[in-house]
Design goal:
heterodimer; A: alpha/beta; Rossmann fold; 2 domains; two-stranded antiparallel ribbon; 10 strands; B: alpha/beta; Herpes Virus-1; six-stranded mixed β-sheet; three-stranded mixed β-sheet; 13 helices; binds zinc ion; zinc-finger (chain A); DNA repair (chain A); General transcription and DNA repair factor IIH subunit TFB4 (chain A); metal-binding (chain A)
Chain lengths: 305, 418
């Protein structure tokens, strides 16, 4: 690959997980301690964003917040005026405010919107996921716009700062987004803060060639971000970056949205089910028991010698 | 391809009307078509000297209409396929009109085809039969592992004698009639010779293939042959003859995507499958497929915990079909398509919200407003009522297959099934 002048100019799209069910006071009781408070997390992310812009003055950043009820653009360094108009309702002149203040303000408004949504929907006993599939789709639409611009345009990549667990019902949409990112050569980096690994993000970084990492000490988030995720795509060829600790390729079933490692697949449409059904709920095909035995009894392939 | 219409073109257009009319008579039909439409008159030059269409919105509407027509009705495809690839390695394959020989080129193309086939049809099976010395010889069993086929083919590179289509069809049919009923039976013949030397009646063999619901396709290397044409016509396959090396590859690769299914031929069924996890990059394990110690990568069978080197495959210990879930997921956008967006006709009226959105929900690009600077169409998702620009509409329906608006609200309408 020939080096072109914009090889190390990056367009970073940061997906910030602001799910109140993950960061809220109840969360610690439910999920156990994360090792970092929301305040610290947000401050580290802000420092990281400023760092990206300092590394190369032509770098561009976009911040998208992922909540439990909605997603929204918080900041767009290319069109700061536009975005602040659409997100913040107060009529101040935004150009005078510093970037961090701007993002903080957008964030506060986003969080209060989230709060209202949570209050409006008091059924918080069940697990609430973040709308990761939504913010990922928005990020890709935005990047598509960058790619449409005449060359040279910056090299786009997505960084997901994720805490909330994977929402099994988002499986298909997340996979669709991952394949679209792969086709356009957009790496998806993932930094997972929660207590479990994220199968979605493992697959995303595996398929798109991004970096996946779950920092062992979440309170040192800023260091991990700067040392690993701030590197542009060109420099990554020369660095020893963390290698994956394995990828969880389990699927989630269409009937209960449960994550399974073994299941039944409809031969017509490839829908996945966790147990035997009479008909396929996706394509309407009817299955008979006799067919099933025919397959399980199918010949075993002799290993090649 | 997605935004060809949008991109400004750098063209040198000088129109001399008088001259054109004279020249009209001796022009080809396609030239007249362009001249009649006077499409250059719909262009204007912008500040930077680029040509842009005068009426952007009209242009975009036409593009949307074209795309909608192309999408067409939903076709059901046979996803689980059982294919026998018949390769003519008779003396005709030794001809050197393709370098190094027809056989060498065919083998290269088939190798690429086998890999592509398993990529696009993760749950399908494939086998190879060679036509040589007047007989048909089965090179590989129907199986799901690309490497086995490629290895066997590479170690069997010789050609001699005549080719017999009848023998090959009979042999392949014998194996294909044994497969599970949900599978789609197919034969793909790559034929170099100009004649077939058969022991019996080939028309009978064709008829039997038709009765067994085997779809037969032929890719020819020399010239169109009547019997091949008949075979494909009778069984619903495709017959094509390659004119050069690149064309041959293209014709063979055309058979990789699943073909449209002939209704009610196959029976649906549930197939038991495992979704293994990928091991850590530095883990050491004993591999079941090669029977040796391997470091890094590999997948673990969820039922018996044996290690296999690649997916998709069948577990060598317990026989479970092992696939990676992304393999299956690649076809899911066919199942849950994003509804077509509707054009917002009256931009002045807000759609259930206080004020009409200024920016595209997906990319933040400014949207056209009545009397505004931005021209073009404004589109709305029928489910979430968010507004999108023309470019995002294109991208969402052609590549992304998700509506960012629907995905970012936690209403369950975006969830698949039930
Ligand atoms: Zn289920
Ligand atoms: Zn189905
Ligand atoms: Zn096994
Ligand atoms: Zn847009
Ligand atoms: Zn929508």
């Amino acid at each position: 690959m020939a080096r072109n002048p914009t090889d190390d100019v990056s367009q970073v799209v940061l997906l910030l997980d602001v799910n109140p069910f993950f960061w809220g006071a109840d969360a610690e009781r439910l999920n156990g301690s994360v090792g970092i408070t929301f305040d610290q997390y947000f401050q580290h992310a802000l420092m990281f964003l400023n760092g990206i812009l300092l590394l190369n003055h032509t770098n561009k950043i976009v911040v998208i917040a992922t909540g439990s009820s909605t997603c929204g653009f918080l900041y767009d360094s290319t069109a700061t005026e536009n975005i602040s108009e659409s997100i913040t309702s107060k009529g101040k002149t935004k150009s005078q405010e510093s970037r961090s203040e701007l993002i903080t303000q957008s964030m506060q408004e986003f969080v209060s919107k989230e709060e209202e949504a949570v209050k409006a929907n008091p059924d918080s006993s069940k697990v609430q996921y973040s709308n990761f599939s939504g913010s990922l789709a928005m990020a890709l639409c935005y990047i598509q716009r960058v790619l449409r611009e005449p060359l040279p345009h910056p090299q786009p990549r997505i960084l997901c700062l994720q805490g909330s667990p994977d929402a099994p019902y988002q499986y298909i949409s997340v996979m669709n987004s991952i394949f679209s990112a792969q086709r356009n050569g957009i790496p998806i980096d993932a930094c997972v803060i929660g207590n479990q690994h994220s199968a979605f993000l493992q697959q995303a970084s595996h398929i798109t060639g991004g970096i996946y990492m779950k920092p062992p000490q979440p309170d040192g988030l800023f260091e991990y971000l700067m040392m690993i995720f701030a590197t542009d795509l060109f420099s990554r060829q020369f660095l020893q970056l963390p290698r994956p600790v394995g990828v969880d390729f389990r699927a989630s079933c269409f009937c209960h949205k449960k994550t399974i490692d073994m299941g039944y697949v409809c031969s017509v449409c490839l829908s996945i089910f966790c147990k035997h059904h009479q008909t396929c709920s996706t394509c309407g095909a009817t299955f008979s028991k006799s067919n099933l035995t025919a397959i399980t009894g199918m010949k075993r392939k002799a290993p090649p010698s | 391809m997605m935004d060809v219409d949008e991109r400004p073109l750098r063209l040198d257009v000088d129109d001399d009307g008088a001259e054109e009319d004279e020249a009209m008579a001796d022009r080809g039909a396609f030239e007249r078509h362009y001249a009649d439409e006077r499409s250059w008159e719909e262009l204007q030059e912008d500040e930077s000297g680029m040509l842009r269409p005068l009426d952007v919105a009209q242009q975009q509407r036409q593009h949307r209409k074209r795309m909608a027509a192309m999408a067409g009705p939903h076709i059901q495809r046979g996803i689980i396929r059982y294919v026998y690839v018949l390769l003519d390695f008779s003396r005709a394959a030794a001809e050197m009109d393709l370098r190094p020989s027809r056989m060498g080129i065919v083998a290269d193309c088939v190798e690429a085809f086998v890999r592509e086939f398993f990529d696009q049809n993760p749950l399908s099976h494939l086998g190879i039969i060679l036509l040589r010395n007047g007989i048909a010889h089965r090179l590989t069993d129907l199986s799901g592992s690309p490497e086995t086929h490629i290895k066997a083919l590479r170690s069997n590179m010789e050609c001699a004698g005549d080719a017999s289509i009848q023998n090959a069809l009979d042999l392949a049919r014998g194996y294909l009639t044994q497969i599970p009923s949900y599978g789609h039976r197919e034969i793909m013949l790559v034929f170099s010779a100009l004649s077939t030397i058969d022991p019996g009646d080939i028309l009978e063999a064709v008829q039997k293939c038709k009765e067994a619901n085997i779809r037969c396709s032929v890719v020819g290397l020399s010239a169109e042959i009547y019997i091949c044409k008949l075979l494909c016509d009778q069984t619903g396959g495709i017959y094509s003859v390659a004119t050069n090396e690149a064309h041959l590859k293209e014709l063979i690769m055309e058979h990789a995507p699943p073909p449209p299914v002939q209704a009610e031929i196959s029976v649906a069924s549930l197939v038991r499958m495992g979704f293994p996890q990928r091991g850590a990059e530095d883990a050491v394990a004993l591999c079941a497929c090669h029977r040796e110690v391997k470091i890094g990568g590999g997948y673990t069978c969820p039922r018996c915990k044996a290690r296999v080197c690649e997916l998709p495959t069948q577990c060598h210990i317990c026989g479970l079909t092992l696939v990676s879930s992304p393999h299956l997921a690649r076809s899911y956008h066919h199942l849950f398509p994003v509804p077509p967006f509707e054009e917002v006709a009256n931009m002045a009226v807000a759609n259930g919200r206080q004020s009409i959105s200024k920016n595209c929900y997906g990319c933040l690009q400014e949207l056209p407003t009545p009397g505004g600077k931005v021209k073009g169409v404004r589109l709305a998702c029928p489910r979430c009522r968010q507004h999108f620009c023309f470019d995002c509409d294109n991208y969402i329906h052609e590549s992304l297959h998700n509506c960012p608006g629907c995905e970012s609200t936690s209403i369950s309408s975006s969830q698949p099934s039930q």
